[in-house]
């Protein structure tokens, strides 16, 4: 009964979306207030139906209703409750339902928090969001129905892939989807602006908070995925340039460009057509990601069980949405005029360079990801493109970007002088180089040129970012008051930029100075890695809620003192599931100690993998800084003021 | 409308075309670089007689097939009857390469399902298979009179591939000079 | 999709998602160990869903890791091991594609795109150059405006 209600609710959501996608749009074109007014209630209703449907699926999981095929394939009665819930989005059909639910949630948010935007504009935005929802709902109802029933329900379900039975991985998709799908809002704003011919700066100002928040979610989602892979997959890596990872990273890169471009468009009425294009591009990359994960066109560890027939459907959807929006762009963008003027040295140019570099970085990742497909399709041969390529090519493109991060923020709009910006930075530059080159030798104990360059860059970013605070309050008479009055937009930017410095530090140091060793070791023996002694006390059998395990005990001594006891495990989740290795980690801000169990060797001896990963947590700490920065910037008061002025100016453009 | 604003659309359509083509391709299939090259060495004991060493030189002068199989491989079971059929038609030697298997289980398997092979080489460790670029079973190599690999089938044989690719190729190879 | 197919496909995914092979090896020198680590990082597991030899537990991956180790112990160089693998499995086995005519798009594309990007920046700046006596109004922009 409940699954049928869930399915019916999806159909209702589709019906509402059909209305939401058409009538408000026509109403906005014909200036029909009644039809325009349908948009917000429709968004409410659609969200309600979608949430209810999601609730029905969740109920089915919690009650282990194995008559539902999706539940039987992804859950069993022994699983802990939290994983029964996360199994809802653990495979293709359920994750699609999550996707469209989150889309509904964003639509609801737009409907609620847009009281100070013109109704016609909001109507168009919600109509576009509804069109996207229609595509996904049709896809689900026709090819990927999570509520399909089994005629003969089995007494027990299979289980969720043990890899997914983990809190980090449980929260990773929702976080990621809030980000991906959130770019649909910026996309919808851009399309609404194109449709309405409304190409002044107001749409950019409205779009900024939404884009910042979506970007913050995506940042956290990607970081969660990286952190999970690190502690779960057992070999200390945190990024593999896998096609599905790239599929989430590319929208992030363009989203970052979009955030900066929106600033230029809002403030200086420049890069207008370009910002619209970026908004389309960001969401297009999100949709492309959806295609890549589910179509089987590229091989990936992360891909859902792929099905080319689903791929065809998504491809058609891409053609309609992206092809349609790019056609609209080609028609409307030439009408966009900008009289903005600026000097060679100006923040506008800084943002332009930022955008170009991020665009090149994105296209580089796209090229590498699709290259195997290109050569196969053209019959040139079968190639693989992996981390060695991406690492080699990506860093040179993004390093100049990092160097300019703080500097760009220091530049004035429109017109500035090179000397004014750089004079106060000359001495700090020398200091950064000196400290950057000293750090590897002095702190890490071993000099490499790569570490020196990395640390110099990180220090430079940190300095120029923090100097930005001084630049704004230094000349003021009451500095504390000035500090207090700095807008949140500024603090958000500063936090996020500072996060970049943390990120560069983390990846530089962890890639160069981490140690790893596979050792064969008997109970009672120990192994010394750097300053740490790992004493292996042996292995015994244990049990978990839905698995049996061999659990090892390893005591870690630093300079003779016991600092922690680690318990790595090898878990067996029963027939049909591969054994899982749970590494044991002693986390630390400056180093992670990491032990994983391998195979038994001969008598009483086991293979153990021991790691000392230095500064690795700085990578995810950086993501937290960046995400926090994005959210704080979105709450800047300016976005909530000037309602009246906008309303008046845009009432005129409703009829456009 | 100005041409430059069409560039994004054009680029996207090219991408969509690429993805469309991609839907028909198999990204996991690894074509063999050995096609067109002489066979690698094959110096393995025969399954039935460990004292006999099977080599590729034995089969020079005629086209032949090398079929890589194992008892633990489900698709090998599925294609096996086709090989048995082929072997009945006379002058096409089919040599088996038993990959990472248990000798007794392999012999039993052939007894049960029929033995289309003139001889089966037993690659217990899979070391020789690496030289042949084997990465999954079953795989079948079509080799010409001069000992050059002319075609590699990845995955189980099926009637369609046999009729459209392999049998015509074999006919052509028969007519070539040794 | 039929349940059985879904089951089989998902099992295939699981089979490659387990942890890397943890093997103890006795290297002759740190350089040899380094070469080994680089090789298993750069070589692809042919039966996995996009993993290198280092991370995979598949049987073929174990066999190939052993091959790499054996060859290094024999004194072969890193390039010789790579050539060995390519001769048998093609370029597919390399995660760092070779630099040749076929891959020129891949290796030179980023640099070319960067150059084009810089060109666009230059053109854009010139077109929007702020000249004295320009028709656009000279607004006063507050310092802390972002």
Q: Summary?
A:
The complex is a heterotrimer of chains A (656), B (178) and C (146). Helices cover 64% and strands 11% of the residues of chain A. Chain A is an alpha+beta fold and 656 residues long.
Give the helices and strands of chain A as they follow along the chain: HHHHHHHHHHHHHHHHHHEEEEEEEEEEHH
Count of all domains of chain B = 1
Largest binding interface between chains: A-C, 91 and 66 residues
> Class by helix and strand content of chain A?
alpha+beta
Bin the strand percentage of chain B. Answer: 15-25%
Q: Please tally the β strands of chain B and state the result.
A: 7
Taken in chain order, the helices and strands of chain B follow as HEEEHEHEHEEH
The low-pLDDT segments of chain A are 650-656
- H/I helix tally of chain A: 20
Backbone shape of chain B:
elongated
* Residues in helix, % of chain B: 25-40%
The main β sheet of chain B shows up as: 5 strands, mixed
How does the helix and strand content of chain B classify structurally?
Answer: alpha/beta
Task: Give an overview of the whole structure.
The complex is a heterotrimer of chains A (656), B (178) and C (146). Chain A is α+β, with helices and mostly antiparallel strands and 656 residues long. In chain A, 64% of the residues lie in helices and 11% in strands. Chain A has helices at residues 2-30, 33-36, 39-62, 69-74, 81-86, 92-112, 119-143, 167-196, 202-232, 243-268, 272-295, 308-332, 347-377, 387-410, 418-444, 449-473, 479-485, 488-513, 617-634, 643-651, and strands at 515-522, 526-529, 532-543, 548-558, 561-566, 569-572, 580-582, 584-586, 591-601, 605-614. In chain A, helix 13 (347-377) runs antiparallel to helix 14. Chain A is globular. By secondary structure, chain B is of the alpha/beta class. Chain B is built from five helices and seven strands; from the N terminus they run H-E-E-E-H-E-H-E-H-E-E-H. Chain B has helices spanning 7-23, 74-88, 103-113, 127-131, 159-175; strands spanning 44-45, 53-54, 64-69, 94-99, 119-123, 139-143, 149-154. In chain B, strand 4 (94-99), helix 3 and strand 5 form a beta-alpha-beta unit. The radius of gyration of chain B is 20 Å and the shape is elongated. Chain B starts with 6 loop residues before the first helix and ends with a helix. With 146 residues, chain C is mainly alpha-helical. Chain C folds into two domains: 24-97, Helicase, Ruva Protein, domain 3, CATH 1.10.8.640; 99-146. In chain C, 53% of the residues lie in helices and 0% in strands. The two termini of chain C are 51 Å apart. Chains A and C meet through helix 4, helix 10, helix 13, helix 14 and helix 18 of A and helix 1 and helix 5 of C.
């Amino acid at each position: 009964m409940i699954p049928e209600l869930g399915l019916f609710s999806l159909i209702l959501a589709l019906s509402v979306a059909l209305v939401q996608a058409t009538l408000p749009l026509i109403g906005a074109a014909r200036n029909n207030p009644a039809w325009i007014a349908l948009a917000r209630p429709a968004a409410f209703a659609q969200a309600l139906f979608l949430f209810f449907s999601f609730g029905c699926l969740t109920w089915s999981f919690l009650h282990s209703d194995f008559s539902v095929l999706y539940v039987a394939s992804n859950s069993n009665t022994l699983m802990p409750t939290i994983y029964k819930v996360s199994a809802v989005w653990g495979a293709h059909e359920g994750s699609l339902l999550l996707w469209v639910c989150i889309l509904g949630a964003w639509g609801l948010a737009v409907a609620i928090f847009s009281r100070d935007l013109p109704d016609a504009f909001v109507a168009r935005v919600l109509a576009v969001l509804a069109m996207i929802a229609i595509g996904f709902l049709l896809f689900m109802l026709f090819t990927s129905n999570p509520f399909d029933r089994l005629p003969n329900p089995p007494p027990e379900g299979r289980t969720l892939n043990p890899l997914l039975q983990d809190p980090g991985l449980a929260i990773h998709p929702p976080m990621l989807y809030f980000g991906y799908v959130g770019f649909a809002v910026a996309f919808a704003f851009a399309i609404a602006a194109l449709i309405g011919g409304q190409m002044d700066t107001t749409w950019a100002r409205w779009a900024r908070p939404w884009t910042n928040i979506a970007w913050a979610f995506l940042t956290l989602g990607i970081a969660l995925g990286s952190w999970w892979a690190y502690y779960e997959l057992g070999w200390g890596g945190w990024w593999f340039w896998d096609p599905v990872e790239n599929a989430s990273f590319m929208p992030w890169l363009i989203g970052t460009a979009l955030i900066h471009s929106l600033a230029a468009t809002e403030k200086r009425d420049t890069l207008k057509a370009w910002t619209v294009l970026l908004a389309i591009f960001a969401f297009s990359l999100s949709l492309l990601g959806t295609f890549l994960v589910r179509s089987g066109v590229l091989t990936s560890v992360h891909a859902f069980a792929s099905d080319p027939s689903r791929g065809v459907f998504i491809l058609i959807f891409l053609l309609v949405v992206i092809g349609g929006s790019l056609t609209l762009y080609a028609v409307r963008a030439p009408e966009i005029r900008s009289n903005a003027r600026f000097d060679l040295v100006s923040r506008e140019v800084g943002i332009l360079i930022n955008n170009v570099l991020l665009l090149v970085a994105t296209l580089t990742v796209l090229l590498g990801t699709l290259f195997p497909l290109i050569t196969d399709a053209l019959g040139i041969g079968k190639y693989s493109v992996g981390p060695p390529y991406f690492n080699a090519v990506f860093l040179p493109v993004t390093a100049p970007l990092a160097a300019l991060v703080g500097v760009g923020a220091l530049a004035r709009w429109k017109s500035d002088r090179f000397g004014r910006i750089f004079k106060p930075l000359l001495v700090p530059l020398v200091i950064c180089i000196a400290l950057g080159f000293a750090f590897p030798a002095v702190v890490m104990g071993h000099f490499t040129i790569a570490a020196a360059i990395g640390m110099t860059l990180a220090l430079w970013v940190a300095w120029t970012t923090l100097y930005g605070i001084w630049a704004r309050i230094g000349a003021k008479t009451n500095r504390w008051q000035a500090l207090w009055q700095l807008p949140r937009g500024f603090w958000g930017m500063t936090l996020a930029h500072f996060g970049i410095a943390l990120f560069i530090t983390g990846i530089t140091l962890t890639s160069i100075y981490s140690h790893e060793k596979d050792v064969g070791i008997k109970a009672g023996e120990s192994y010394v890695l750097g300053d740490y002694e790992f004493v292996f006390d042996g292995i015994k059998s244990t049990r978990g809620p839905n698995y049996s395990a061999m659990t090892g005990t390893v005591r870690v001594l630093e300079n003779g003192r016991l600092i922690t006891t680690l318990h790595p495990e090898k878990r067996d989740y029963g027939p049909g599931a591969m054994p899982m290795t749970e590494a044991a980690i002693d986390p630390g801000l400056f180093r992670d100690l990491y032990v994983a169990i391998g195979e038994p060797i001969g008598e009483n001896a086991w293979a153990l993998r021991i790691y000392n990963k230095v500064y690795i947590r700085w990578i995810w700490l950086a993501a937290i800084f960046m995400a926090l920065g994005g959210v704080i910037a979105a709450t800047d008061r300016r976005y909530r003021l000037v309602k009246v002025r906008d309303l008046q100016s845009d009432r005129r453009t409703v009829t456009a | 409308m100005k041409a430059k604003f069409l560039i994004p659309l054009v680029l996207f359509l090219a991408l969509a075309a690429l993805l469309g083509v991609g839907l028909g391709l198999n990204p996991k299939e690894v074509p063999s670089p050995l096609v067109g090259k002489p066979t690698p060495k094959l110096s393995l004991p025969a399954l039935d007689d460990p004292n006999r060493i099977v080599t590729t030189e034995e089969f020079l002068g005629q086209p032949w097939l090398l079929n890589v199989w194992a008892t633990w491989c489900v698709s090998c079971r599925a294609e096996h009857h086709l090989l048995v059929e082929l072997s009945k038609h006379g002058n096409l030697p089919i040599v088996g390469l038993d990959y990472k298997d248990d000798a007794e289980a392999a012999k039993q398997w052939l007894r049960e399902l029929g033995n289309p092979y003139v001889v089966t080489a037993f690659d217990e460790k899979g070391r020789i298979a690496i030289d042949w670029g084997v990465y999954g079973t079953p795989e079948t190599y079509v080799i010409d009179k001069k000992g050059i690999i002319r075609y590699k089938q990845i995955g189980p044989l099926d009637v369609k591939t046999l009729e459209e690719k392999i049998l015509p190729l074999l006919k052509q190879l028969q007519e070539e000079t040794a | 999709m039929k349940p059985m197919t879904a089951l089989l496909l998902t099992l295939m995914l699981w089979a490659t998602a387990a942890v890397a092979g943890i093997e103890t090896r006795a290297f002759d020198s740190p350089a040899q160990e380094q070469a080994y680590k680089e090789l298993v990082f750069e070589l692809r597991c042919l039966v996995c869903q996009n993993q290198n030899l280092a991370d995979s537990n598949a049987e073929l991956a174990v066999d190939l890791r052993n091959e790499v180790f054996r060859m290094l112990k024999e004194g072969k160089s890193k390039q010789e091991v790579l050539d060995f693998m390519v001769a048998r499995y093609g370029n597919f086995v390399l995660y760092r594609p070779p630099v040749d005519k076929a891959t020129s798009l891949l290796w030179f594309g980023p640099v070319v795109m960067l150059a084009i990007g810089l060109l666009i920046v230059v053109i854009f700046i010139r077109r929007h150059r702020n000249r004295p006596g320009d028709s656009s109004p000279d607004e006063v922009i507050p310092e802390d405006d972002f």
